[in-house]
Design a protein that fits this description.
Layout lengths: L1 E9 L4 H12 L5 E6 L3 E3 L10 E10 L3 H14 L16 E7 L4 E3 L2 E3 L8 H10 L4 E2 L2 E2 H6 L7 E2 L9
Antiparallel strand pairs: 1-4, 1-5, 2-4, 3-4, 3-10, 6-7, 8-9
Length: 167
C-alpha cells in the first residue's frame, strides 16, 4: 500500500461538518484507509483574501489506488458535496477542497496532477495540520516540521474538538 498526505479545507456552509463527512466519504476502509487525522484549524484566506476564513485539516491515508486514482476519488468526493470547480474563482470561496500533498516519495508533473503539491512549502495552513500528525515525514528531503519552522504560522488557529465529546 502507498501512503499519501492530503489536505482538506473549505469556507462555505457548515465547514467542520462537511470536512468530517468528506473524510468519511474519502476513506472507505478498503481502497483508502485513514491512518491519522489532524485537528481542525481556522486559517486566513490565501491568495484571494476578501472572503471568510477557512477551516483546514490534514490526513494520512494508506491506499491501493494510484495517485491519479486517488485524485479522481478526491474530486468525486468534492462533487458529492456540491463543488463545481468550473464555476469558481481561483483561491476563492469553496464548500470543500481536497488536495493530495504527497504520495509516497513520488514526484509527478502531469496535467492536473503535480506531486508533491507545488505550494506545499509556502502554506502554513497545510504544514501546521500536517506537523501535528506527521512531523517527521520527509518531502523532497525536508521534514514537515522543518518546513513549518521556515514559515510564520500567524493567523492559523487550532480549533477545539467539535461534536459530542466522550469522557
Amino acid at each position: 500500500m502507498a501512503q499519501a498526505l492530503l489536505g482538506l479545507g473549505g469556507n462555505l456552509g457548515d465547514v467542520r461538518a462537511t470536512l468530517a463527512r468528506a473524510v468519511t466519504a474519502l476513506c472507505d476502509g478498503r481502497e483508502v484507509q485513514l491512518v491519522a487525522r489532524s485537528s481542525d484549524y481556522r486559517t486566513p484566506p490565501w491568495g484571494l483574501t476578501d472572503q471568510p476564513p477557512f477551516v483546514n485539516l490534514a490526513i494520512v491515508v494508506e491506499t491501493t489506488l494510484t495517485p491519479r486514482g486517488l485524485l479522481d476519488r478526491a474530486l468525486a468526493v468534492e462533487a458529492m458535496f456540491g463543488r463545481d470547480r468550473s464555476k469558481e474563482r481561483r483561491w476563492g470561496p469553496r464548500i470543500l477542497d481536497i488536495d493530495i500533498i504527497a504520495f509516497d516519495a513520488l514526484e509527478i508533473d502531469e496535467p492536473g496532477l503535480t506531486l508533491p503539491h507545488p505550494h506545499l512549502f509556502e502554506r502554513a495552513f497545510v504544514l501546521l495540520p500536517l506537523a501535528e500528525i506527521a512531523p517527521d515525514r520527509k518531502i523532497r528531503g525536508i521534514t514537515v516540521a522543518q518546513a513549518l519552522a521556515r514559515l510564520d504560522p500567524g493567523g492559523v488557529e487550532k480549533l477545539p474538538p467539535s461534536g459530542p465529546q466522550v469522557g
